[in-house]
Design brief:
Chain lengths: ~600, ~600
């Protein structure tokens, strides 16, 4: 019943016109994805997402996964076929280096494609999504042999990957984890323990599953300093890397969840499973964060993806559902009532989603470009700056885009009235699926702490200052342009609020750390608003140039309206965030625990 | 797995100390519920809610209702027994007039009790809840015979009631409805048509079901002017009111919904069912609004109820879950980690919910008292003022308390991290159940339009002016009190924003009605913040008086902290609402429909 159309034209506008994708052609891989080819790649991705992957979305929610008595898990009808088409089309390996069987294309292109796929079917796309994170960790921390053994198969998608972090008593606080690793003396370890919430832990879509597992080597220090990362292959491998006997890792049960029913979320039991250290002994947390950072951007993208597909369905319903008359006079007098899109409050919902989604897409692609520069440039200064901004933006994209993606799925559901509450229409699924993105890969409160407690002060605040300078200069450069003034004014006001909040934190969080914690979520969202507002500034500027030079179209005209909506109706929230931040921790922390 | 404890002490503080319940003892029914008796009634209600009704909540979600081939519907295990205990305890009939078998107690007392029951089990309490609305409509618009025939049985709870408004093509816009009523010549009508989303339309808990059905009498005018209200009894009644043969009304199917699985939401088919006009011919909309207004307050209450029970469970989890160390130094050094309630961002979630719930409870009880005065006072001026404020506050309570109730259920779920997403913990159910309250009995966008388009200008703005005056005088009276200044300052700022928004609407909505529609939701929430802030002012004032005269306790100390939190962290949102309202409709409405 739901529909999805990949926003290819918008992606191309952002990449080609706003972000100047062609300027990066000197970076490895970019020449292989020229603007013409980019167009073709996104077109093909759109077809797959719309025609193959999306039609499986409601099926997946309805059927869910099934665990059998022998511990095997069956995915919903059609999932394996959909995954095979994705895999065989080479979509898994877009950005994987060519030496490991990938296509070496920009991460930016992978990101653009991943948005479409997650919009089409979030639960299905988690199987390859987790694999990407596992590949990243192996490429960064694995030995040459590990890379050669695992990555090509994973890039091809015949093997998939997982991340095994959480245990029943330990989620955020990984220092508490108990899973044990005992050296066998021949370079291997016996891994024992229980992991929970393991996405894609067991399923029927790939020949083998590569588990990356955090565990504590016998005698290791307590806390996070004693954690190591291991590779545990579902099937043991012989010397040539061929599949051998079953390893002692199994799915004990499937979690009954609020959403993403099509994804198998497993309790995984390790019973002296054969595992191999990846990276340094006791260096597991560092290796894990490679996966985690990759995954956090992917989860932020899921937030946008769900907000986008929910928006599209709300638009379709608002154009089709006839109810009431426009307050300014009948718009469809030949019909019994007007379509509800004529009503301002319905428009408010649609415009909120749209204004956010288009800027969110720009911010994700802007950040993905930073990732490409950070990993592929040979100019040290460029690499450092890009890496700074990538690290800074990661918690913001994860936290803000998933909070808003959920909020917008709820908003889209609201447009459907009572019909939105009925499962058949699919709007409830978007809400239920979007909900998890605020939680996993570090709940959004943790993202906020990462921003305030780590990223803000890192290298003397270098990343933040770089960002403030870029946005400030953009405002200054366009201040005198009367077409741009309405946009730079709102953006500058937001930037001022953000800088004031940053100053407040510097002055008040050192002597009283609770002030940082108390400010963190508001600071995250304040930062997000300014980053999104900056994207609107850039998009509007480009649209105006297009219109001025005669190459503009209705897309560009629409950008001016939507950008104005953002500045008028979304940007003013920065002041409330600043007020809350400046209130400090006192009233938040004053109640004694037993008063609750 | 979930727990619930009725907040009796807080209800008593609000009723007795803040709102001066005893001052109303001259109103009918109030003398029968003296403060002592009130205490006893709430205590008994708490026991029933906590020990009988709440334990059925997760069962209801898990099992749902089942429709059998013959059209009958079975409710979840234990629901009938729970309902019977509720019914036999006389909880149905608390505020029903004594002449119709009720107890004639204040509606305020009924409201206090209803909060507990809905917190305990929203889906179960919808069966009696809908019955209350049907009773109200019959008492207001029914003939003496209809009142005598139906109300005593419904007050006793052996018969239940429903509201049948929505049809597949017509929800908000009732003018489109098609259900037909053909006079039979003997005073009855044959009702034919299909109704959807009918809560408690068919079930096994009562001997008979009294459907109040909107339909169009043959030859009636088009639109809402041609709608009449009918009583259709599931079993026809003989001359003595005894149950006779089955009427031609049946449940065609149950909707598969996101939540409230324990409530049977039916498609109801009327196939020349015998019905009787209630109220005037073509006067159905007016009669329906009696039910609707009652129901809207009830739904607002559901928002609070769900926010409260979700909050309580989040508090319990936050005290028990050990994860990480306090940023200001270990609080439980003897344990492996501190309980997560030590973390400011967790506190932020808890304090947001708490600050809102306590004020929401006060606002609902304040409004319920207005309802009692409006219906029971014999002083005309008091009645009018109370009725004005009741009408004004109804859309605010419905819209704001359900938006926030849902938001807080989501917030409470977030405190649980990954465990919140697992159905077993029950937090997902609170979110899924709370979601419907934003939609039914008029989606919240409709509440906002009711406020801006109808209530605001009614009688020359009399209600709004009364409210502004009351809040303004409260600020003025307490401005000089230095203990109160931090509270009156925030409240006054909010009131100023609300008055500025009201002025803007008066100046800009007449010549351009889209400006009213574009402002409506923000205006609703802005109004809600001021109303809740006013409740905080009143509560803090009372708490300070208690503390000053030596009768204060930890409850009163906590009010000062929570009230300050509200003023520092929630009240500042009024400025963003005002900014959005003042932006007008232009950027919201400018995009052509085909640009979406």
């Amino acid at each position: 019943m739901t529909t999805y159309k990949a926003p290819v034209a918008d992606t191309l506008f952002i990449l080609n016109d706003v972000l100047g994708y062609e300027r990066y052609s000197n970076l490895p891989g970019f020449a292989d994805a020229s603007p013409d080819l980019l167009d073709a790649i996104l077109g093909e991705a759109a077809k797959l997402a719309e025609n193959v992957i999306h039609p499986l979305n409601q099926v997946g929610d309805h059927e869910g996964c099934v665990r059998h008595a022998d511990g095997s898990v069956t995915t919903p009808t059609g999932f394996k076929d959909g995954y095979d088409q994705y895999r065989e089309g080479g979509w898994m390996s877009l950005a994987i280096p060519e030496e490991f069987g990938g296509q070496g294309l920009p991460y930016t292109v992978h990101t653009a494609v991943a948005e479409y796929m997650s919009s089409a079917n979030m639960a299905l796309m988690m199987y390859p999504g987790l694999t990407q994170g596992a590949i990243a960790a192996i490429l960064e921390h694995g030995s040459d042999e590990q890379k050669q053994t695992f990555v090509p198969k994973m890039a091809e998608g015949v093997w998939t990957g997982t991340m095994n972090l959480t245990e029943p008593h330990c989620g955020t606080d990984l220092g508490l984890l108990r899973t044990k690793a005992v050296p066998t003396g021949d370079g291997a370890y016996k891994i024992s323990g229980q992991k929970i919430f393991i996405s894609a832990g067991e399923h029927d879509m790939s020949e083998n599953i590569i588990h990356l597992v955090l565990a504590r080597i016998e005698g290791a220090p307590e806390g996070v300093k004693g954690i190591s990362l291991f590779i545990v292959s579902k099937f043991k491998l012989d010397a040539d890397g061929n599949l051998g006997e079953r390893n002692a890792v199994s799915c004990g049960s499937l979690e009954e969840k609020m959403g993403i029913h099509g994804n198998s979320t497993c309790v995984m039991n390790y019973d002296e499973a054969e595992g191999y250290l990846i990276g340094a002994e006791n260096g597991g947390l560092k290796a894990m964060f490679v996966m985690m950072n990759e995954a956090r951007l992917g989860v932020g993208l899921q937030g946008l993806s769900l907000g986008e597909v929910a928006y599209q369905n709300a638009v379709a319903y608002a154009k089709e559902r006839l109810q009431g008359r426009s307050i300014s006079g009948a718009k469809s007098p030949d019909k019994k009532a007007d379509p509800i899109i004529v009503h301002p409050d319905i428009r408010r919902n649609l415009m909120n989603m749209r204004a956010f989604n288009e800027a969110g897409r720009a911010l994700i692609l802007w950040t993905a470009l930073k990732s490409d520069v950070a990993h592929r440039s040979d100019v040290e200064a460029d690499k450092q700056e890009a890496d700074d901004l990538l690290g800074l933006m990661t918690p913001i994209i994860k936290g803000v885009l998933t909070d808003k993606g959920f909020e917008h799925a709820v908003m889209a559901q609201q447009v459907f009235g009572g019909h939105g509450y009925i499962e058949e229409h699919g709007m409830s699924q978007f809400v239920r699926d979007a909900r998890i993105a605020m939680i996993y890969e570090g709940a959004n409160g943790i993202q906020a702490l990462d921003l305030v407690g780590r990223k803000l002060a890192l290298n003397g605040g270098r990343a933040v200052q770089t960002f403030f300078k870029e946005v400030g200069e953009f405002c200054e450069a366009n201040r005198a342009d009367e077409n741009m003034a309405p946009f730079t004014k709102g953006l500058k006001k937001g930037l001022n609020d953000l800088q004031a909040a940053t100053m407040w934190l510097m002055q008040n969080a050192m002597q009283k750390p609770d002030n940082a914690g108390a400010a963190s979520t508001d600071y995250l969202h304040l930062f997000g608003l300014v980053a999104l507002g900056y994207m609107w500034g850039r998009m509007v500027k480009t649209a105006q140039e297009k219109i001025a030079d005669g190459s503009g179209s209705s897309i560009h005209e629409a950008k001016l309206v939507t950008g104005r909506y953002f500045m008028e109706r979304i940007m003013p929230e920065t002041a409330a965030h600043l007020a809350r931040i400046s209130a400090g921790a006192d009233s938040m922390m004053a109640l004694p625990e037993d008063a609750f």
